[in-house]
């Protein structure tokens, strides 16, 4: 490490930038909206992964059927065996495909008047639960507000202390450099 004031100043500025970035990262990490966004991204990633696996299994099974159907030698028994092997390897994909097929068929059949009446009753009975869930969510949000503010204040205080510590170290370094420069000057003058 050099003892020049410019190098010390540059080091101080670098440390300030690093400290500022660390502080920004900490504040970003404890911001409730950022926490919610990260959790949403995790869920979306997990669902995307499952969707990709299901679509991959469906594409593989479809291509296996197409290949086997176009191949006279393989016949239909080869395709059925390949689809069966896929199903054994990934039962979740088969279950999801069956559920999607059932959902498609159910959407094509119109609802009966009895089903409509039951759905209306369930909706009316669920309304208080929805209101209670909203209330609980709002309460949780307000309960988390104070700890998050306390955490942000603690981060800010720690950052301020770190800045003052860096500033003090820099001033000490400047004093040391000045003293050494004076000693060097005295040594050169005295020789």
Which radius of gyration do the C-alpha atoms yield?
Answer: 34 Å
Percentage of β-strand residues: under 5%
Number of structurally distinct domains: 1
| Topology order in helix (H) and strand (E) letters | HHHHH
Which class of secondary structure composition applies to the elements?
Answer: mainly alpha
Main β sheet profile: none
Termini separation (Å)?
Answer: 27 Å
Total strand count, please? 0
Shape: elongated
Query: What is the helix content?
Result: over 70%
Average pLDDT works out at 76
Provide the low-confidence segments as ranges: 72-76
Number of helices: 5
How would you characterize this protein structure?
Helix content is 92%, strand content 0%. By secondary structure, the protein is mostly helical. It has one domain (5-190). Helix 2 crosses helix 4. The longest helix has 78 residues, at 113-190. Residues 72-76 have low confidence and may be disordered.
Compact overview of the structure:
The protein is mainly α and 191 residues long. It has helices at 5-30, 32-70, 75-89, 91-108, 113-190.
Topology:
Elements: H1 5-30, H2 32-70, H3 75-89, H4 91-108, H5 113-190
Helix pairs in contact: 1-5, 2-3, 2-4, 3-4
Give short descriptive properties of this protein:
191 residues, mainly alpha, 5 helices
């Amino acid at each position: 490490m050099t003892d020049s004031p410019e190098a010390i100043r540059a080091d101080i500025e670098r440390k300030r930038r690093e400290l500022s970035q660390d502080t920004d990262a900490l504040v970003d990490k404890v911001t409730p909206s950022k926490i919610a966004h990260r959790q949403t991204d995790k869920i979306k990633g997990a669902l995307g992964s499952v969707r990709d696996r299901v679509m991959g299994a469906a594409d593989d099974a479809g291509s296996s059927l197409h290949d086997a159907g176009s191949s006279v030698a393989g016949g239909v028994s080869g395709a059925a065996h390949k689809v069966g092997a896929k199903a054994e390897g990934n039962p979740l994909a088969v279950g999801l495909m069956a559920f999607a097929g059932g959902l498609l068929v159910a959407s094509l059949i119109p609802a009966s008047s009895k089903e409509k009446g039951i759905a209306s009753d369930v909706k009316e009975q669920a309304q208080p639960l929805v209101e209670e869930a909203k209330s609980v969510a709002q309460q949780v949000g307000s309960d988390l507000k104070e700890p998050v503010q306390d955490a942000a204040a603690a981060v800010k205080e720690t950052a301020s202390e770190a800045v003052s510590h860096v500033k003090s170290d820099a001033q000490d370094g400047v004093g040391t450099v000045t003293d050494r420069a004076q000693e060097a000057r005295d040594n050169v003058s005295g020789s």
